[in-house]
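2.7 Reproducibility. Because tokenized structures are sensitive to small changes in the input, we list the exact sequence used for Hydroxyethylthiazole kinase, including any N-terminal residues retained from the expression construct. No trimming or masking was applied before prediction.
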Amino acid sequence: MSFTEQKNTLLQQVIQAWTRLQEQQPLVQCITNSVATNYAANILLAAGASPAMIDNPFEAESFANVTSALSINLGTPTTEQMQAMLISAQTVDHKNTPWVLDPVGYGPVLKWRSSMVDQLLAFKPSVIRGNASEISALAGKQVQAKGVDSTISSHTVYRQAQCLLVHSECIAISGEADFILSRELGLVIQVNGGSYLQPKVTATGCALGALIAAYSAVTTPTIAALAAHLHFAIAGKLAYEKIASVGSFNVVFMDYIHTLNSEMLLQYADFQLISL
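Resulting structure tokens (single pass, no recycling of outputs):
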């Protein structure tokens, strides 16, 4: 199958995933950071999913047993959250429920959370998603990050990240262009679009991880990552075309997350395939 034929097939699978997301409204357990909790929940609601921010160890196992997908984000971990992460990851691993790991701040500076990420990898996340600095560090490269923000380009990292496919079906790297490494397809998918204003809105990356989890409940890890990234890229592109100030952009961006449909996916999806 040629790349053109594969692209057409992938886009149809993304549209099917979007349709199933609207129909099924999957329940997504989010263990995320204090900065992102509200925003991630609103993104999931706008996209058609049902968020549940269950992040304490006393309820983690019982809820992970019924959730459709799990999103774990290491942004501002507390001791109880760390316990809930391990319990939830172990539970969904036993149930073969899809889950997404967002290793926020991974690296030598924040050793406590980084050690937890290393433990969580044993439970085989369906998708690992992060910015270029985090993914590079997770792949064993020594990089300097500015807090939890990336200081290197996603273009320079996606080949480094191939080694992480032993831990996960799919690696998603966000940046000026997004790169999705698929073990299933043996390909890299480059997603274009979006806006430079997206990183200026707190928690957009964290919310993207939660949306990948939502899509993971209705499709394969590769299609879930591609669908979520296209959902964000199209919403960001169209929002920026309408308004270029950061506060108003965020409102319009959320509107487009909600109003995205199959016709918009067909018209605006911008991605290309690259051999691994």
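The longest strand covers residues 27-31.
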